[in-house]
Amino acid sequence: MKGRVLIIDDDRLLRESLAVYLMEEGYEVETAPSLSEALASLEAFRPQVAFLDLLLDGDDGLDFLRAVAKERHPCQVVIMTGHGSLDTAVEAMRLGCRDYLLKPVEREDLLSRLEVILEECSFREGKGVVLPVCCICGRVRDEENRWMDLPQYMMVHMGILLSHTYCPQCFKKEMEKFASPHEEG
To answer: In terms of domains, do 105 and 145 share one?
Structure first.
């Protein structure tokens, strides 16, 4: 099997069709229509990735994320929702959500995201380190869900203090800037 996936959605048709699709692609899949069943599967099935709907027949999907964070379970959570909002997206990311997708989700897109997540999981299990990096500001998220600059992360977690300097190519470019006459406008 390529990996263990849990699908948490109260929409039976969506849940089952996605499960069949992922099983045909070689994944071991369990499904859960409710928060209580999802939490039970989290312990018994030990999924690597969970696809989670936010609204589960009166349950709040974010409670699943809270449980994953509290128990420090290695499950990566991807939210799939038809009722997304900026507030829930921000809260989900704060709780450690790996990705946030709005329904309807293309199966090929979902599969490619799943493959990337599982590759990262495999890398981690091989003692490699994968740092989630914000694609806007470049800060990294540590294991305790704190965001910090890369130099700060390296100092706190690796005992490495970065010293800023120039590589030979950049040094040459900077020196050329000083040597060329400044244009006045």
So the answer is: no
Q: Is the separation of the CB atoms in 138 and 148 below 8 Å?
A: no
Structural domain that includes position 155: 140-179
Residue 141: name the closest of 129, 159, 127 by CA: 129
- CATH code, domain with 8: 3.40.50.2300
* pLDDT tens-digit map of 15-65: 999 999 999 999 999 999 999 999 999 989 999 999 999 988 888 889 999
Query: How deeply is 69 buried, as exposed, middle or buried, from its count of CB atoms within 10 A (0-12, 13-18, 19+)?
Result: middle
The C-alpha atoms of residue 21 and residue 4 are separated, in whole angstroms, by 14
Q: How far is CA 111 from CA 11, 96, 151, 153, in A?
A: 19, 20, 34, 31
Distances (CA, A) of 3 to 70, 84, 92: 23, 27, 23
Coil vs helix vs strand at 155:
helix
Return d(Cα 162, Cα 133) in angstroms, integer.
18
Task: Report the DSSP beta bridge partners of residue 8.
Answer: 32, 52
